[in-house]
Amino acid sequence: MQKNVFQFLDVPRQPPRELPVSVRVLGWKEIYGDFAPAEAAEQSARCIECGNPYCEWKCPVHNYIPNWLKLVREGRLFEAAALAHETNPLPEVCGRVCPQDRLCEGDCTLEDGFGAVTIGAVEKYIVDEAFRQGWRPDLSRVAPTGRKVAVVGAGPAGLSCADRLARAGIQAHVYDRNEEIGGLLTFGIPPFKLDKAVVATRRGVLEHMGVRFHLGTEIGRDVAFETLLADYDAVFVGTGAYTPVDGRLPGQDLPGVHPALDFLIANGRRVLGTARDGAGPPELTGRRVVVLGGGDTAMDCVRTAIRLGAADVTCVYRRDEAAMPGSRREVKNARDEGVHFLFNRQPLAIEGDATRGVAGVRLAETAPGGGRASAAALVEGSESVLPADVVIIAFGFRPSPPAWLAEHGVALTPDGRIDTDEPRRYATSHPRIFAGGDAVRGADLVVTAVFEGREAGKAIAHALADRAVPPHPL
Ligand code: FAD
Ligand code: SF4
Questions:
Q1: How many CB atoms lie within 10 A of CB 406?
Q2: What is the pLDDT of residues 225-260, one digit of tens each?
Q3: For ligand 1, what atom is nearest to the CA of residue 175?
Q4: Which residue, among 336, 266, 264, 265, has the nearest Cα to 293 in the 3D structure?
Q5: Which of 19, 140, 340, 355 has its CA 20 to 30 A from that of 347?
Q6: Going from the N-terminus, what domains does the chain have, and what CATH number goes with each?
Q7: DSSP state of 183
Q8: ipTM > 0.85?
């Protein structure tokens, strides 16, 4: 098929249809719809196939974006799916949750003046549609090596590592303390951004590739780490970053104050139908909710609170909107769904008492300007109290290295991350322990966890093939 290189002049950027705001806030469905094949082909054909594709450079996994856009334009869906998996073990997830506006699409040549190619939506289309039509990764030419590796953590880092191990003929056994795979994909990111059926489909695909899951199994409690070291050739650690940043606000222990992840997990489990003992998120119907923080987790909390029927939801951030760390798209979605934003406000204390709970949040205005990292300068005499019934704290997360790492001589950085610095790359200071994802980088993105898991999987396969790691002792 002859390509019209000027298609972008005739065809505007057109993402898939969104659920209308009035409908989406009533439930938990993903808000973005699907491309029909003709729509995906038409939007893909807007790509001008830049000789030096900025989109691809900006993508943390360096997806072959113009190449799979071309395959979609030509209707070669299964080849596009295979190519998407060459660089990304979880493309259908990244197509949904990557902040494309500050990654591939933000750097697309067409972004300035014409509208970026809808890269994320096409990526999602390729894999959803290929899976629907029965395509699966082809491992028929992979020869088993007889090696086996334990993966601790079934988040995006662990799953990506398991994928690469399976492709290298290595038996991957993935352990997770949760009852389902996905890590924060399942027990953090809300269903309106990522439907949990997508993660369940991926689990089936990985099992089809030979990956074995041991769920509801916490390493260090249910199985000793020594057992993994004894039973496997190598171990990959992708345990994430779960220690909430402590704002040390007076009143943060009052009834009605909730840490962001507890709130999101409680709701996620309720929606999944796996809540324990009928536990669920706090009752928010008709209540005034204040969320402290300005990142993606804060956006997930405000949008969840809206869906739980809160009367009023306000996001309080200490800097201005331009300094917000998360995706612009999520801020827009939150605003469209009725969330109010208070910028340049520093929370000083949560007001209330132990009997009646939260009454409000004491705030001070901060001077405009200043980077995210620096402390915000307070404006003298600007204190006020924002009334609230419920406060959710979303100040981010720090690493949470399991104690057994240090006990086995694995070096950590001073801030608690697993040290895999040069020249080792993905290997820790222990010759048979590798690591990646938030546990190594600190809280970051799905796509960076995918990258690290992928590279660590390759590094383990190399090490085992080179006999740099001796066969496991049993
Ligand atoms: P995780 O996903 O945290 O997975 C770690 C896994 O290890 C967990 O399943 C945990 O149960 C398991 N584990 C830990 N210790 C043990 C043990 N001892 N034994 C067994 N299992 C163990 N990123 C984006 O790109 N886009 C988004 O929209 C986005 N939204 C987010 C929303 C929220 C609320 C949060 C908190 C994060 C969000 N992120 C987002 C960040 C992203 O989810 C993480 O960067 C990513 O999941 C990190 O992957 P990981 O595999 O390193 O860790
Ligand atoms: Fe195509 Fe945009 Fe990438 Fe250029 S930058 S190759 S136009 S998607």
A1: 11
A2: 999 999 999 999 999 999 999 999 999 999 999 999
A3: 20
A4: 264
A5: 355
A6: 7-132 (1.10.1060.10), 148-241+399-465 (3.50.50.60), 244-396 (3.50.50.60)
A7: G
A8: yes
